Amino acid sequence: MLSTKISGSHLTFCAVCVAALLTVGCGPRPAGSAAPAQLSEESFKEFGDFELHYNAVRTDHLSAEVARSYGIQRSKNRVILNVTMLHKEADHAPRKPVEGVVAVDAYNLNGQLKSMEIRRVNEGDAIYYIGEVAISGNEILVFDIKATPSKENTALSAKFKREFFTD
């Protein structure tokens, strides 16, 4: 788990996000989209010497203090995505966060693309990327993540679905 390898306020932020993860949704993908999203609770993928960690939660699951410190609006109608790229130097060594470029498409099962601006956050040795998106009522979102570590040519890709309940 990411939070066991990085300390400080990033650990707190990640722990809050992981603790607040909601049920994964299922359904057909919009026409013309990439491969189906993961239907499991996995929150990371391995790519050789890299790991891509990701999660999404409603912003009202964040504490007021955490939300304020990151400039996040707490609401049952908003979701935050957190993405981190880690470099593996050895099997049992701590992973090291890396900079790069992160792009995310978020859409619902009707194929409606949701506007999501990703921003990089640096805290000590921690580097992660966050973005917020609005949801309407109970909604299943698909997140299609493409993250390219600095000095690498190949993107790390992950796709997952998550169902959010506003009731």
Features:
167 residues; mainly beta; Immunoglobulin-like; six-stranded antiparallel beta sheet; four-stranded antiparallel beta sheet; 2 helices; 11% helix; globular; disordered N terminus
Description:
The protein has 167 residues and is mainly beta. It has a single domain, classed as Domain of unknown function DUF4426 (Immunoglobulin-like), CATH 2.60.40. The chain contains two helices and ten strands. The chain has helices spanning 9-19, 64-70; strands spanning 44-47, 50-58, 78-87, 96-97, 100-108, 113-114, 118-123, 126-134, 139-149, 156-164. The strands form two sheets. Strands 1, 2, 3, 4, 7 and 8 form a six-stranded antiparallel β-sheet that branches. Strand 7 and strand 8 (126-134) form a beta hairpin. The chain is globular, with a radius of gyration of 15 Å. It starts with 8 loop residues before the first helix and ends with a strand. Mean pLDDT is 81; it is low at 1-12 and 14-35.
Summarize the main sheet.
Answer: 6 strands, antiparallel
Measured distance between first and last alpha carbons: 29 Å
Run of helices and strands: HEEHEEEEEEEE
| Average pLDDT | 81
- Tell me the CATH topology: Immunoglobulin-like
Please report the total strand number as a whole number.
10
Measured on Cα atoms, how large is the radius of gyration?
15 Å
CATH second-level architecture: Sandwich
Class from secondary-structure proportions: mainly beta
Strand content: 35-45%
Low-pLDDT segments: 1-12, 14-35
The CATH class designation is Mainly Beta
